[in-house]
């Protein structure tokens, strides 16, 4: 049986995350302290004690989830058959498969979080969950809403069949939500986020991260990583680099990623990191899959 290790993204954080592992696992503890030293901040204080409003800020959320996921994975001592991560989780996955060093990754994840937060201030926008409509219907409604108001709204996360997230200018999102509700979807509501992630409104973050990603040392991984941008497996460092940059302004193709795992013979999925969001998406996408998690 082939097993894929999958890593969560923003939204899985909670105050107290990792505290039990930090207190009981020396390897987890030491990596957390290393992260604090590298970043020059006490990230663990924010993770363990909050307050929640601070932890929810993208500049802290992203390195916190990354650190929790990687420290937990390292303590497992396993070699995966393949990996994938949802948005931010792609960086956790790349450390897990040996493509990027922990030291480089924690710095670039912190920078990514800062840049995405800043992009949300330069180009204000939001995101919304849409449940109960086919992907093609959601895509067409986004096109229609964008045309109607001359603003941007696009699919940002294809999470599982009938479960998507859209992203863009608030005005265009509002129009799209009205159309979704009139179309009879099960749910269409805005999410509490600080920016229009995975949309063209992230252009400032794309521009700011480009040089850092070009300078990043990326090694050939020990196993394939399934990319958010293409949903396809790769072990090519140059493709990994371009995929990491492109995912900032393009949708996370998680549904297709899981289906491609299934097509490649993967039937077991293990989520590593805070929460159980990805296990739920596996359950809804691949009915026969086995799944578990390490939180």
Main attributes?
Malonyl-Coenzyme A Acyl Carrier Protein, domain 2, Alpha-Beta Plaits, four-stranded parallel beta sheet, alpha/beta, 295 residues
Question: How would you explain this protein's 3D organization?
Answer:
The longest helix is centred in the middle third of the chain and has 21 residues, at 102-122. This protein has 295 residues and is an alpha/beta fold. The protein starts with a strand and ends with a strand. The protein folds into 2 domains: 2-121 and 200-294, 3-Layer(aba) Sandwich (Malonyl-Coenzyme A Acyl Carrier Protein, domain 2), CATH 3.40.366.10; 125-191, Alpha-Beta Plaits, CATH 3.30.70.250. The chain has 13 helices and 11 strands. Strand 7 and strand 8 form a beta hairpin. The strands form 3 sheets. It has a 5-stranded mixed beta sheet with strand order 6-3-5-4-9. It is globular, with a radius of gyration of 18 Å. It has helices spanning 19-24, 26-39, 43-49, 52-55, 58-76, 89-96, 102-122, 135-149, 170-183, 203-215, 237-246, 254-263, 277-285; strands at residues 2-7, 82-85, 126-131, 153-160, 163-168, 187-191, 225-226, 233-234, 252-253, 266-272, 290-294.
Summarize the structure.
By secondary structure, the protein is an alpha/beta fold. It contains 13 helices and eleven strands.
The CATH superfamily title of the largest domain: Malonyl-Coenzyme A Acyl Carrier Protein, domain 2
Main sheet: which strands, in order across? 6-3-5-4-9
Assign the structural class, choosing from mainly alpha, mainly beta, alpha/beta, alpha+beta, or little secondary structure: alpha/beta
State the name of the first-level CATH class of the largest domain.
Alpha Beta
Distance between the termini: 23 Å
């Amino acid at each position: 049986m082939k097993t894929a290790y999958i890593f969560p993204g923003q939204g899985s954080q909670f105050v107290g995350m990792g505290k039990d592992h930090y207190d009981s696992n020396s390897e987890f503890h030491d990596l957390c302290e290393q992260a604090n030293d590298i970043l020059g901040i006490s990230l663990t204080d924010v993770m363990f004690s909050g307050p929640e409003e601070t932890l929810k800020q993208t500049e802290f959320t992203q390195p916190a989830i990354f650190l929790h996921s990687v420290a937990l994975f390292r303590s497992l001592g396993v070699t995966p058959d393949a990996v994938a991560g949802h948005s931010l989780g792609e960086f956790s996955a790349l450390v897990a498969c040996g493509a990027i060093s922990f030291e480089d990754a924690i710095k670039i994840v912190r920078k990514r979080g800062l840049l995405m937060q800043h992009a949300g201030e330069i180009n204000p926008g939001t995101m919304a969950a849409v449940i109960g409509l086919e992907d093609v219907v959601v895509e067409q409604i986004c096109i229609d809403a964008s045309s109607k108001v001359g603003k941007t709204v696009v699919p940002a996360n294809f999470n599982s069949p009938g479960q998507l997230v859209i992203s863009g200018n608030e005005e265009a999102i509002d129009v799209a939500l009205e159309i979704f509700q009139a179309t009879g979807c099960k749910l269409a509501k805005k999410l509490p986020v600080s920016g229009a992630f995975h949309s063209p409104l992230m252009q400032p973050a794309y521009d700011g991260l480009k040089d850092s990603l070009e300078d990043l040392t990326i090694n050939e991984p020990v196993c394939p990583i399934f990319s958010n941008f293409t949903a396809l497996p790769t072990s090519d460092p140059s493709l990994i680099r371009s995929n990491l940059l492109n995912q900032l302004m393009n949708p996370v193709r998680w549904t297709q990623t899981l289906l491609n795992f299934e097509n490649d013979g993967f039937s077991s999925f293990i989520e590593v990191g805070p929460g159980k969001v990805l296990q739920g998406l596996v359950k809804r996408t691949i009915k026969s899959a086995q799944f578990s998690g390490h939180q």
